[in-house]
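Example (one chain per record):
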Amino acid sequence: MSQNRRSILGAALALPTALTVGGLAAATPAAAAGAVDAGAWTPLVLEPGITPNAAAAPEVRLVTIAGTVFLQARGLVTCNLTGDARIGRLPDGFALPTGYVRAAVPRNNSQGINACRLEINPAGSVSVFGGNTANAITWVQFDSVQTIWR
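Predicted structure:
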């Protein structure tokens, strides 16, 4: 029986999600001492003036699937960004990216613009781009973030 990419992918997608994600995440090496547990949701450290939503504070985690590390984020902040701005940083002990990580995230719909750019730099600073004085960003939601970390 020959195996092509379509049959292999079909078999992989047929596995239960819990088995795929849990099994591969458990197979990753243990985190270094003092490091944030991979897969655990960890709160972002926010800048002054950036307010976490009481019911959904912003959090991040790293998940490894088939040897690729993904950043996932969730939560919501309120703010008043009239320009590109640093909104926070990764938590202490969180693995830093090897390059810039970018994602489009939902924001308040103003003048037909309903998304902005979220960026994490190699030092761990989290910034939002796209606000201006005529079109301020008043909230940003992170639930759509799932991007390759390294």
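Caption: The helical segments are 5-14, 17-26.
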